[in-house]
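Backbones bend. To wit:
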Amino acid sequence: MINNMGALIEKVQRMQQELRNMTMEISEEEGACKIVINGHQEVQDIKIAPSLLRPDQAGVLESLILKTVNKAIVESKNIIKSEVSKMTGGMNFPDIPGMF
Protein backbone atom coordinates (compact mmCIF):
# COMPACT_ATOMS: atom_id res chain seq x y z
CA MET A 1 0.00 0.00 0.00
CA ILE A 2 2.80 2.42 0.94
CA ASN A 3 4.53 1.73 -2.38
CA ASN A 4 1.37 2.76 -4.23
CA MET A 5 0.73 5.90 -2.14
CA GLY A 6 2.27 8.23 -4.73
CA ALA A 7 0.11 6.74 -7.47
CA LEU A 8 -2.98 6.97 -5.27
CA ILE A 9 -2.31 10.64 -4.47
CA GLU A 10 -1.87 11.34 -8.18
CA LYS A 11 -5.18 9.61 -8.96
CA VAL A 12 -6.96 11.62 -6.26
CA GLN A 13 -5.56 14.89 -7.60
CA ARG A 14 -6.58 13.95 -11.15
CA MET A 15 -10.06 12.99 -9.93
CA GLN A 16 -10.41 16.30 -8.07
CA GLN A 17 -9.68 18.21 -11.29
CA GLU A 18 -12.10 16.03 -13.26
CA LEU A 19 -14.81 16.67 -10.67
CA ARG A 20 -14.22 20.42 -10.92
CA ASN A 21 -14.79 20.17 -14.67
CA MET A 22 -17.78 17.82 -14.36
CA THR A 23 -21.14 19.57 -14.25
CA MET A 24 -24.69 18.40 -13.82
CA GLU A 25 -28.00 20.18 -14.23
CA ILE A 26 -30.64 19.64 -11.58
CA SER A 27 -34.16 21.00 -11.89
CA GLU A 28 -37.30 21.20 -9.80
CA GLU A 29 -40.95 21.87 -10.51
CA GLU A 30 -40.78 20.80 -14.16
CA GLY A 31 -37.84 23.06 -14.92
CA ALA A 32 -39.09 26.17 -13.09
CA CYS A 33 -35.71 26.28 -11.35
CA LYS A 34 -32.53 24.81 -12.83
CA ILE A 35 -29.14 24.68 -11.13
CA VAL A 36 -25.86 23.73 -12.78
CA ILE A 37 -23.33 22.48 -10.21
CA ASN A 38 -19.89 20.96 -10.51
CA GLY A 39 -18.30 18.09 -8.61
CA HIS A 40 -16.92 20.52 -6.02
CA GLN A 41 -20.45 21.64 -5.08
CA GLU A 42 -19.88 25.02 -6.73
CA VAL A 43 -23.04 26.41 -8.31
CA GLN A 44 -22.19 27.40 -11.87
CA ASP A 45 -25.54 28.69 -13.10
CA ILE A 46 -29.14 29.25 -12.00
CA LYS A 47 -32.12 29.59 -14.31
CA ILE A 48 -35.54 30.70 -13.06
CA ALA A 49 -38.81 30.54 -14.97
CA PRO A 50 -39.98 34.11 -15.76
CA SER A 51 -43.37 33.39 -14.18
CA LEU A 52 -41.68 33.20 -10.78
CA LEU A 53 -40.03 36.61 -11.13
CA ARG A 54 -42.94 38.54 -9.67
CA PRO A 55 -43.08 40.15 -6.22
CA ASP A 56 -46.01 37.96 -5.21
CA GLN A 57 -43.94 34.85 -6.00
CA ALA A 58 -40.88 35.79 -3.89
CA GLY A 59 -41.53 33.18 -1.18
CA VAL A 60 -42.17 30.44 -3.72
CA LEU A 61 -39.01 31.39 -5.58
CA GLU A 62 -36.88 31.40 -2.44
CA SER A 63 -38.15 27.97 -1.39
CA LEU A 64 -37.68 26.57 -4.88
CA ILE A 65 -34.09 27.83 -5.15
CA LEU A 66 -33.25 26.40 -1.72
CA LYS A 67 -34.79 23.03 -2.58
CA THR A 68 -33.02 22.86 -5.96
CA VAL A 69 -29.60 23.86 -4.60
CA ASN A 70 -29.83 21.26 -1.84
CA LYS A 71 -30.88 18.59 -4.34
CA ALA A 72 -27.95 19.56 -6.59
CA ILE A 73 -25.49 19.25 -3.70
CA VAL A 74 -26.79 15.77 -2.83
CA GLU A 75 -26.52 14.68 -6.47
CA SER A 76 -23.00 16.09 -6.70
CA LYS A 77 -21.95 14.20 -3.56
CA ASN A 78 -23.38 10.99 -5.00
CA ILE A 79 -21.30 11.49 -8.16
CA ILE A 80 -18.18 12.04 -6.05
CA LYS A 81 -18.80 8.88 -4.04
CA SER A 82 -19.32 6.94 -7.26
CA GLU A 83 -16.07 8.26 -8.75
CA VAL A 84 -14.12 7.47 -5.56
CA SER A 85 -15.58 3.97 -5.56
CA LYS A 86 -14.46 3.46 -9.17
CA MET A 87 -10.99 4.76 -8.37
CA THR A 88 -10.56 2.52 -5.32
CA GLY A 89 -12.10 -0.57 -6.85
CA GLY A 90 -15.09 -0.38 -4.54
CA MET A 91 -13.11 -0.18 -1.31
CA ASN A 92 -14.94 1.75 1.39
CA PHE A 93 -12.98 4.58 2.95
CA PRO A 94 -14.17 6.81 5.76
CA ASP A 95 -15.41 10.16 4.54
CA ILE A 96 -12.53 12.36 3.51
CA PRO A 97 -13.07 15.87 4.94
CA GLY A 98 -13.98 18.30 2.19
CA MET A 99 -14.49 15.51 -0.32
CA PHE A 100 -18.12 14.61 0.31
